[in-house]
Each structure stands twice: as structure tokens, then as C-alpha cells.
UniProtKB/TrEMBL annotation:
<dbReference type="GO" id="GO:0009229">
    <property type="term" value="P:thiamine diphosphate biosynthetic process"/>
</dbReference>
<feature type="binding site">
    <location>
        <position position="74"/>
    </location>
    <ligand>
        <name>Mg(2+) 2</name>
    </ligand>
</feature>
<feature type="binding site">
    <location>
        <position position="46"/>
    </location>
    <ligand>
        <name>Mg(2+) 1</name>
    </ligand>
</feature>
<feature type="binding site">
    <location>
        <position position="213"/>
    </location>
    <ligand>
        <name>Mg(2+) 5</name>
    </ligand>
</feature>
<feature type="binding site">
    <location>
        <position position="210"/>
    </location>
    <ligand>
        <name>Mg(2+) 3</name>
    </ligand>
</feature>
<feature type="domain" description="PurM-like C-terminal">
    <location>
        <begin position="150"/>
        <end position="300"/>
    </location>
</feature>
<feature type="binding site">
    <location>
        <position position="53"/>
    </location>
    <ligand>
        <name>substrate</name>
    </ligand>
</feature>
<dbReference type="Pfam" id="PF00586">
    <property type="entry name" value="AIRS"/>
</dbReference>
<dbReference type="GO" id="GO:0009228">
    <property type="term" value="P:thiamine biosynthetic process"/>
</dbReference>
<feature type="binding site">
    <location>
        <position position="145"/>
    </location>
    <ligand>
        <name>ATP</name>
    </ligand>
</feature>
<protein>
    <recommendedName>
        <fullName>Thiamine-monophosphate kinase</fullName>
        <ecNumber>2.7.4.16</ecNumber>
    </recommendedName>
</protein>
<dbReference type="InterPro" id="IPR010918">
    <property type="entry name" value="PurM-like_C_dom"/>
</dbReference>
<feature type="binding site">
    <location>
        <position position="212"/>
    </location>
    <ligand>
        <name>ATP</name>
    </ligand>
</feature>
<dbReference type="Pfam" id="PF02769">
    <property type="entry name" value="AIRS_C"/>
</dbReference>
<feature type="binding site">
    <location>
        <position position="46"/>
    </location>
    <ligand>
        <name>Mg(2+) 2</name>
    </ligand>
</feature>
<keyword id="KW-0418">Kinase</keyword>
<feature type="binding site">
    <location>
        <begin position="120"/>
        <end position="121"/>
    </location>
    <ligand>
        <name>ATP</name>
    </ligand>
</feature>
Length: 331
């Protein structure tokens, strides 16, 4: 059986493609990287815990992919180019088959987005994966949650609620989605961070956040930071065919507004930048969808319209909360 150091070398170091700006990577006491001139460094960290963010039926390859993806989604929300990641991996035992699949998922997404694994740590204990990711953004151009203005248009980058629906189906809360099930499962296990879109939004979006805990919960951070409110047009919410063919209209709206794990971007754009947004995103397969508008408000409240009319919508919970949701939920 390989020890800690041989595990790192075999599964992580030997397969890693190193960027030119990595001066010292895995194998020393610390990593040394070179940041481009006139750029700011963006650092994000996310942890996934067995039994909370995934269960024992989740493929190891998916865990490796998603652990990186959720961090790259945070970088995307700030308009940053992904560059480097560090991995802290806690394992109950050295299961080499699991490690092989996990590392494959991790390396694949790193290679796709051009970022390098430059260090980390392995320990023994309950299965936990922590990734710290770093990216670069031109000086002063990082997107933030603060900056939404009354009159801004509210956008999301793609379909909402699919990952939450997949989780509900696997936990038998809803009937199976028939031919759509596999696609829903892929949305849950293999999210695609909107990295290119995030970089396109520099100088265009007034505020931005990624949707990890549910649209309403994450939009609430923008509204609170910017001291504004919002109005959402329910019939403008982007819903997949799987969603509309599996749930009732009311259920679909609730799922799109509250389910976590979508990793789409939610952002606001001023009227005079809407044309620029359309130009910058014209090449994208899934173009951002306008779902409402930011309004002046003393409180971070959200109102709803349906086909142009005020619509009262009652939701049990606005999104995922680590300290309220049952064990086994995901975010």
C-alpha cells in the first residue's frame, strides 16, 4: 500500500500539467506562482463533505470534477481567469480505485479550464474534499455582489433547478424523469462553471454572483450588499424540458427559485450595457436570460409577476442552508 507521499505523487503530481506561471508546484513546502502585471489575485475556497454534499452512490470521478467546478464557478462570478488550485483531501482509507477515479475527474476539469494543481495535503478521517482556487483579473475589474442599481436588468446564465430536481428524484421525492433522468444527473454531478461568461461580464455587469444555494438565496446577497430590491417575472425563468415535463408549473417555479447546485451566474446589467451584453454573448450556446429588474427598496425584498401581473408566491424556504437542511442535502 502506498504511503501519503507516494499517493500524492502517483495520483496527483505525475499527471499534472503545469502552467508557465507555476515556478514551484507540488513537491516542496509551498507553491510559488507568478501573477501577471497589473492584475489582481482572486482566492476562493470550498469544502465538500460526505453525507452533506454527496453520498456513497456519487461516483468518485464526479466528486473530483465538482470539487473543482464549484470553486471555478466562484472565480467566474468575479470575472477571474482560473489559474491554480490546492487540494486538501481527508480519506477514511487509501482506496486506490477511488483515488484513481477522483483524480481523473479533477485533472480533466483542470486541463479543460487551463488551471494547475500546485499543492495541498492528505490526512486520514471522514471523507472531506477542500479546494482553494486562485485566479487573476485585470486590476480593479473584479465583479462583486455590491453594485446593483435600481433600473438594472436581472439575468441568469442558464436553466435553473435541474440539479435540485435530480437530487429529489434520486432521493425518491419525485417520480423518475424518464428519458431526462441521465441529463439531470449529469447537471448535478458534473456542473459547468460559466468561466468564459464571467470574464465577458467585466465592465458590463454591475453585480454578479453564482447560484450555488438557490436563486433567491444568492440573489439575496446581491440585494443586501447593494441595498436594493428585485422583481422577477416567473414566466421568464429558464426551465429545461426535463423540468417542465416532470413538475407542475408551480413546482417548477419553486424549484428554479430555491434549488441549489446549479452553478449558473446571476447578474445585473444597466440599460445602456444591454446591447454590449448581447454582442459579447452572441457566440454562446446558452445565452443569458433576462428574468426581471432591480428596483429601489429599503429592504432586500423580491416580488413576482406572472404574465405581467403581480403574483403572490409562497415558498417554504428560499434556498439551501447548511445548518437548517437535513443531512444528505447538497449545495
Amino acid at each position: 500500500m502506498r504511503n501519503e507521499f507516494s499517493l500524492i505523487e502517483y495520483y496527483f503530481q505525475q499527471h499534472q500539467r503545469t502552467r508557465d506561471d507555476v515556478l514551484i508546484g507540488i513537491g516542496d513546502d509551498g507553491a510559488v506562482t507568478r501573477v501577471q502585471p497589473q492584475h489582481d489575485l482572486v482566492t476562493v475556497t470550498d469544502t465538500m463533505v460526505a453525507g452533506v454534499h454527496f453520498d456513497d452512490t456519487t461516483p468518485a470521478r464526479a466528486i473530483g470534477h465538482k470539487a473543482v467546478a464549484v470553486n471555478l464557478s466562484d472565480l467566474a462570478a468575479m470575472g477571474a481567469e482560473p489559474c491554480w488550485i490546492s487540494l486538501a483531501l481527508t480519506l477514511p482509507e487509501a482506496d486506490e480505485q477511488w483515488l484513481q477515479e477522483f483524480s481523473a475527474g479533477l485533472h480533466e476539469i483542470c486541463q479543460y479550464y487551463g488551471c494547475s494543481l500546485i499543492g495541498g495535503d492528505t490526512t486520514r478521517g471522514p471523507l472531506t474534499v477542500t479546494i482553494t482556487a486562485q485566479g487573476q483579473v485585470p486590476e480593479g475589474q473584479a465583479l462583486t455582489r455590491k453594485g446593483a442599481m435600481p433600473g438594472d436588468w436581472l439575468y441568469v446564465s442558464g436553466p435553473l433547478g435541474d440539479a435540485g430536481l435530480a437530487l429529489d428524484i434520486t432521493q425518491q421525492r419525485y417520480p423518475e424523469a424518464g428519458p431526462h433522468l441521465q441529463k439531470l444527473i449529469e447537471r448535478l454531478h458534473y456542473p459547468s462553471p460559466r468561466v468564459a461568461l464571467g470574464q465577458s461580464l467585466r465592465g458590463v455587469a454591475n453585480a454578479c454572483i453564482d447560484v450555488s444555494d438557490g436563486l433567491l438565496a444568492d440573489l439575496g446577497h446581491i440585494l443586501t450588499s447593494s441595498q436594493v430590491g428585485a422583481e422577477i417575472e416567473l414566466d421568464k425563468l429558464p426551465l429545461s424540458l426535463a423540468m417542465t415535463e416532470t413538475l407542475s408549473q408551480q413546482q417548477a417555479y419553486a424549484k428554479a427559485l430555491t434549488a441549489g447546485d446549479d452553478y449558473e451566474l446571476c447578474f445585473t446589467v444597466a440599460e445602456h450595457h444591454r446591447g454590449k451584453l448581447e454582442t459579447l454573448t452572441a457566440h454562446l450556446k446558452n445565452k443569458p436570460v433576462c428574468i426581471g429588474r432591480i428596483k429601489k427598496s429599503q429592504q432586500a425584498t423580491v416580488s413576482f409577476k406572472l404574465e405581467g401581473e403581480d403574483y403572490p408566491l409562497t415558498l417554504e424556504q428560499p434556498g439551501f442552508n447548511h445548518f437548517l437542511d437535513d443531512a444528505g442535502a447538497t449545495s
